[in-house]
Automatic annotation (TrEMBL):
Positions of region (Disordered): 1-23
Molecular function (Gene Ontology), one example: ATP hydrolysis activity
Residues spanning the membrane: none
Top-level taxon: Bacteria
Annotated keywords: ATP-binding, Nucleotide-binding
Xref: PANTHER family: DENITRIFICATION REGULATORY PROTEIN NIRQ, MOXR FAMILY PROTEIN
UniProt protein name: AAA family ATPase
Domain spans labelled CbbQ/NirQ/NorQ C-terminal: 196-278
Family, per entry: Belongs to the CbbQ/NirQ/NorQ/GpvN family.
InterPro entries tied to this protein: ATPase_dyneun-rel_AAA (IPR011704), CbbQ/NirQ/NorQ/GpvN (IPR050764), CbbQ_C (IPR013615), P-loop_NTPase (IPR027417)
Length: 282
């Protein structure tokens, strides 16, 4: 079994969901950019599954963490990959001492405990794995475990959230229409400039003028998508750059290692991006 599961508010998936309430003292910082908080709250109240679409590093995961805290639900995160099987989600019999014992997978744990179950990069999972989610995302809200004969009804508060980056491997991987139409889809993108400045300041504790200059630089770099840059600089990269600057790394060096170098190996593109850094920080 190759599986990446993370549970917040507890040491393990099981530990996290023993109590229905999240115990996280500090709310995960999230600055709303539009009406996504209200929409998510209504989806939660109406038992609707949610799909978050958007480029890497634009705040999808942080948003889910924040909403789980806000709604006081445990959060179980599953990073999807093409080896992920239905059993990895649902559970399996394991040999313990002289007998076999059923072990719930993270999806089943979330169902029983009314957690928010977040499947990150869901398009990476195989169709036969994703299809397991179907009965949970319509009126049935239940999961039949063939191996044990159990039919589990989702506990109140259970919500399925998936995310993916539509730009990434768009041609190779997509969700089936029958899967897509089970979700309310929220489009994410990089925050508007003023919000992005606030976020970078809050996350890095760097001064406002430098954060504003970084965000201005990022906006220019993002136009490089037209010139062949596969992934444009994310809010995550801006935060990393600002953190380095705030800890004493010279601005241009920080931009070089944290903002430009992660984006491309193409010497021409990298050179052009460095020129923009020089212009932004003369
Ligand atoms: N609206 C926001 N409020 C607060 N922080 C934000 C916001 N948007 C982005 N961030 C910052 O950007 C970082 C990256 O965001 P996050 O990890 O949520 O991206 P993601 O969309 O899940 O990316 P990926 O698709 O690669 O998983 C966060 O750690 C946070 O510092
Ligand atoms: Mg994420």
């Amino acid at each position: 079994m190759k599986q990446a599961v993370e549970a917040r508010s507890g040491a393990s998936a099981q530990g996290a969901v023993d109590g229905a309430r999240s115990t996280s003292p500090a709310p995960p910082y999230y600055l709303p950019c539009a009406d996504e908080v209200q929409l998510f709250e209504q989806c939660h109240a109406n038992q609707l599954a949610v799909m978050l679409k958007g480029p890497t590093g634009c705040g999808k995961t942080r948003f889910v963490e924040h909403m789980a805290w806000r709604l006081q639900r445990p959060l179980i995160t599953i990073s999807c990959h093409d080896d992920l099987s239905a059993s990895d989600l649902i559970g399996r019999f394991l040999i313990q001492h002289d007998r076999t014992q059923w072990n719930d997978g993270p999806l089943t744990t979330a169902l029983r405990s009314g957690a928010i179950c977040y499947l990150d990069e869901v398009v990476e999972a195989r169709q036969d794995t994703i299809v397991v989610l179907h009965s949970l995302t319509d009126h049935r809200r239940s999961l039949a475990i063939e191996k044990t004969g159990e039919l589990i009804h989702a506990a109140p508060g259970f919500q399925l959230v998936v995310s993916y980056n539509p730009g990434y491997q768009r041609m190779l991987k997509d969700l089936k229409p029958s899967t897509r139409q089970r979700f309310v889809a929220l489009d994410f993108n990089f925050p508007p400039a003023q919000q992005e400045i606030e976020i970078v300041m809050q996350e890095s504790q760097l001064d406002r003028p430098t954060c504003a200059a970084l965000v201005g630089l990022a906006e220019k770099l993002r136009s490089f998508a037209d010139r062949g840059l596969a992934e444009v600089p994310s809010t995550r990269l801006l935060v990393a750059t600002a953190m380095l600057i705030a800890r004493g790394i010279p601005v241009k060096r920080a931009c070089q290692v944290a903002l430009v170098a992660p984006l491309s190996d193409d010497a021409t593109l990298v050179g052009a991006m460095h020129d923009l850094v020089d212009l932004s920080f003369p």
